[in-house]
Amino acid sequence: MLKSNSLLFFYLDIIVFIQYIYIRLTSPVTGKDLFGPAPANSIISHCSATGTVSGTYNVGGLIGFSNNSTIMNSFAQVSTTGYDRVGGFIGTSGWQDSYTHISFCYSTGAVVSSSSVGGFSGWGGNSYHRECYWDVQSSGISTDAGSALGKTTAEMQQRSTYEFWNFTSMWSIQENLDYPQLLIPDDLTELNSISLDDLEGQGTPADPYLIYSVDELNAMRLDLSAHYALMADIDLESSAFWDYGRGWQPIGNAEERFTGSFNGNSHTIDKLTINRTNVGYLGLFGYTEAATIQNLKLQNFHIIGENYCGGISGYTLRGSLDKFEIDGIVLAKSLAGGITGVLDSGFLQRSFADMNVTCQTEYGGALVGVIYSTEAQKGIVSNCGSNGLIRGNVNMGGLVGALTWGYIINSYSHASVTANGQPGGIVGLCGWTNPGYEVQSPS
After folding, report:
1. Which has the closest alpha carbon to 148: 100, 180, 81?
2. pLDDT, averaged across the chain
3. Among 149, 220, 393, 412, which residue carries the largest CB count within 10 Å?
4. For residue 114, what are the CA distances in angstroms to 59, 85, 107?
5. Residue 141 has what pLDDT?
6. 250 three-state secondary structure
7. Helices marked H in 157-290 — which ranges?
8. What pLDDT shows up at residue 375?
9. pLDDT value of position 405
10. pLDDT for res 212
11. Buried b vs exposed e over 380-405: b needs ≥16 C-beta within 10 Å?
12. pLDDT given for residue 439 in this prediction
């Protein structure tokens, strides 16, 4: 039996990354005060625990106390007992002005406490939970201190409950028989550092760098103004485990933008995964300016972020997006689209998206979250189509969440759109305070 501060996750005043830990407690764990504070600015990913935990306060099945940290893709099947701030997954989640971000996690164990108890989180503090669940029957608790969702045992053993979870690379489930289990990668392909000198080509429009592998795709970030051509299909299944579970690091950002070109040559990039709940500008490319990106199939991608999220680009300023076939999941607070989160004074044409897009607040579409026009050149979407599920609070559209100034021409949507305010089959919000918008779509 472990006592006092012999903890699963003990306190350290440094940044810590914890990944691939599976603990089965064959004897009870007890603590006088805390069971396992997760240190600030830490990441816990792909971890699980089973057994029994007891203490006085801040008692959790996986984590006792977390402050300003990220926990994702983990679960606890642990019976927890304590006096105060006791949860099936975490005792205290967030403290004062520091947030704890928890995503794609669940708990099932019995929870017993005299004060501040929750099926998933015992005390909410400042926490942000996305796609987290607990079993209301096995825990004996029907409420939670955070924003996790309580489900019955039957619901917890159905894949449909976990709509946005990554069952391609991260999770598996025996339908109606068991709770989700973490996949253990047999062959975890890590990125190898290479230089642009290792690539064929010169990076010019006439002689672009040629990309045949994952490592060469990743090397694009070494020169954001160069020109690239994809020469083979790319499987990014291992990206779910990169960077301590945060996944693919987008190419370019708001400070250092991608300004070159990328021709996919009709090849496929499969299973791109990004899990950065409190970060924006997410996609294969984070931020592009006057770039040309074209001829690509992006399949089975999974992106969770804060805002400016899209499969191809988080934010597209000027430039051209052309000929995409995409399908995947985007889950964000706001400003999310299947292809790009924002299309600012640029072009998107000849593309189709089959998407599941959900925004916690506003501005989401199967293609684009928002079309802006900050310059003389208008934002234009033409000859595009969509299917899928588009959901959010307000301003959600089958193609575009909001068209503030620009054009949608000869395009259609068969997507199902749901929002509390301003949902639209093509566009949620059209115009607002800006002039010069137009929608032309076939009936």
Report:
1. 100
2. 88
3. 220
4. 12, 9, 20
5. 96
6. coil
7. 214-218
8. 67
9. 85
10. 98
11. bbeebbbbbbbbbbbbbbbbbbbbbb
12. 63
Q: Tell me the helices (H) and strands (E) count for the chain, helix number first.
A: 3, 38
Rounded-to-integer distance, Cα 212 and Cα 194, Å: 13
Structure tokens belonging to residue 188: 């975890």
Residue 121 CA to residue 332 CA, distance in Å, equals: 22
DSSP-derived pairing of the beta strands 412-413 and 63-66: unpaired
> Which residues is 270 bridged to in the sheet?
235, 299
pLDDT digits (tens, 9 = 90+) for 16-53: 455 555 555 555 555 533 335 555 568 889 999 999 99
CATH number of 196-440: 2.160.20
- Sequence-distant (6+) residues with CB within 8 A of 195 are 219, 222
Whole-model pTM: value is 0.86
**How big is the CA angle at 234 (ends 229 and 240), to the nearest 5 degrees?**
130
Does the CA dihedral 236-240-244-249 come out positive or negative?
Answer: positive
Q: What angle do CA 102, 314, 436 make, to 5 degrees?
A: 130
pLDDT of residue 67: 80
Q: Which residues contact 443 (CB under 8 A, 6 or more apart)?
A: none
Tokens 């047999």 sit at which residue? 186
Q: Within a 10 A sphere around the Cβ of 345, how many other Cβ atoms?
A: 21
Token output for 49: 């625990």
Strand 285-289 relative to strand 234-235, pairing: unpaired
DSSP class of residue 7 equals -
The SS3 call for residue 374 is: coil
| pLDDT value of position 437 | 58
Contact 87, 60 (CB under 8 A): yes
Query: 232: alpha, beta or left, given left = phi > 0 and alpha = psi -120 to 50?
Result: beta
Q: Which residues of the chain have pLDDT under 50?
A: 1-16, 32-35, 443
Taking the domains of the chain in order of start, what are their residue ranges? 17-182, 196-440
What region does 3 belong to: left with phi over 0, alpha with psi -120 to 50, or beta? beta
Within its chain, how far is the Cα of 169 from the centroid?
13
Work out whether the CA dihedral 416, 419, 423, 426 comes out positive or negative. Answer: negative
